[in-house]
Records
---
Amino acid sequence: QVQLVESGGGLVQPGGSLRLSCAASGLTFGRYTMRWFRQAPGKERELVASITNMHLVTNYADSVKGRFTISRDNTRNTLYLQMNSLKPEDTAVYYCNAAGVNYWGQGTQVTVSS
C-alpha cells in the first residue's frame, strides 16, 4: 500500500529556512510526478511545487518562486522541499503527493513566527 511520510517541519523565525522530506513506499516512485501541497488554517489545500519523474521539470506557485526549491532522489524514493526566506504566510501543514494517486499522509507542520 502507498505510504508518504513527511518530515522536517517545525517552528522557524521569519527569514529562516527549513528542508522538508517525503519518504515514499508502496509505489514505483520514479514513475510519478511528485508534488508538495500546503494547507493553512481555514484555507483550501494549495499546490506549492511539482517535479516531473524523468526530466525533473519543476513548477512553483507564484507565492514561493525564488524561495522554495523542490527536488527528488529516485534512488532513495524521497522528495524534498528546501524552503528559504520563510514568511509568516508560509505557515501551514505541508503534504507530499504523487500525481494521480489519491493518498495523503499526515503532513508536517511549518510555523513561521517570531
---
Amino acid sequence: VQLVESGGGVVQAGGSLRLSCVASGFTFDDYAIGWFRQAPGKEREGVSCISSSDGSTYYVDSVKGRFTISRDNAKNTVDLQMNSLKPEDTAVHYCRWSTTNYWGQGTQVTVSS
C-alpha cells in the first residue's frame, strides 16, 4: 500500500492550492479516502473525506465553503482544492486510506499573512 501526496507549497492568505493523493496497493474504488492535517504543536485533525460509493463528502467546519474534495477512480487519486487559504490552514497535510493505519508522507502547506 502506498499513498503519495503532492501539491503543497507557500501561498499568501487568500490564495489557493490543490493537493493530490495518489494511492496504490488496494482496490481504490472500494474505500473512502480522507485528508488530515497537523499544525506544529497541535493534534492531527480530519479535514475532509470522500466516500467510495456515492461520493458523499465531509468537511470540518473550519474549511466548509473553501475546500472541495474530489476523486478520480480511474486514476486512483483524491484531490483537495483549497481556496481562500488562511494562515491557520498552515500544516502538514496527509491523506489516509479509509480508517486504516496507512498514511501518506504528508505535504507542507504554508499560508503567509
---
Amino acid sequence: QLQASGGGLVQAGGSLRLSCLASGLTFDSLNMAWYRQAPGKERELVAAIGTGGSTYYVDSVKGRFTISRDSAKNTLYLQLNTLKFEDTAVYYCAARRSRYGAYDYWGQGTQVTVSS
C-alpha cells in the first residue's frame, strides 16, 4: 500500500515536500511516480523515478520539482519549489513492478493548494 502526505496551502513562490510511504511492498523493486489532477482536468504524470534512480519530469515542473526515494525509509518524495497557482491539484503517488506499463499501486492523494 501507498500512503501520501505533505500537502497543504502555500503562497505562490513557496515550497512543500510530499512523501509517500510504501508498506507491504518490496520498495527497491518498484518504479515510482507522482501524478496530479486539477479540478476539471485529466490526471497527469508529474515526475517518475526508476529503480536505478533515473528520473523524468513533465516540462512544466522541470527545475522546480525534484523526485527522490529513500530505501531505508521505504519512502518516495516530491520536493515542490517555486510553486505556482497552476500547480494546485491533488497529488497521487503510484508504483509498479514493471519498467513500463500501467501503475499497479496508488496512494490516496494529498491536496496541494497554491494561493496567488
